[in-house]
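Task: fold both queries, return tokens.
Query 1:
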Amino acid sequence: MAAKVRDARVLSGIPGKLVPDTGSDVESPTYTLVCQGESEEGARCAAVSVEFNDLDAVHGWACVHMMRHPDPRSYPVIADVPMVLVPEVGPK
């Protein structure tokens, strides 16, 4: 079970929004899939994709993996996405 995360704005007292960093000097996001499926015999697959820079390639890996191994179909995504906190400007 995932830990419950509190809103950073409540914790810091500074209103802002966390958004993907799209600056030109920032590395592209990367995505990796980890197969969590099990075979009919109960063996966990645990296959891991390479890092991809686009979600279409991630989808393609999952489709090819499913064709080769039809039982496993659960794929958590490990995403490395540069983020930046943008302060909210309130009315004055």
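Query 1 returned. Query 2:
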Amino acid sequence: MTKGAPTFAVDGPVPSPAPPDPEVPVKARRRTFTAAYKLAILAELDKAKPGETGADLRREGLYSSSLVEWRRQRAQGKLRPKEPARRGPPATVPAADAAEMEKLRRENARLARQLTKAQLVIDIQKKPPDAPPSDRPARPRAFQRSGPVARDTC
């Protein structure tokens, strides 16, 4: 069979597919990995027995330096799967609701300031556990009354 010649099938001639272009693209593209893929690879390698890590890296075409960086990202909390994008236009708040929300925010801030002041006053008014029962200092024992007092009548 000659190259590029049509082949015949039951229904008629079928053109042969064109061979893939053997040329390398002009500019190589850097690979990008999703957070979910990185987490899956790290979970798989965390479970791997000693000596299996190299085989897994070769199978995936990864370098150990990538793992170091991914583990660092995971430890810092930067490696999280992205949430799916919400579809549709962004939600807008009507102007009347926005004004009411701003009023409520101001009132909330005012009440929070009042609460802070009230808590400060309460803390000041609290007595330490070793304080005397009244605000006045305790009377010396010589001045304390004990029983009925006899009066001299002259």
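Both queries returned. Flag for query 2: The CA atoms of residues 143 and 149 lie 12 Å apart.
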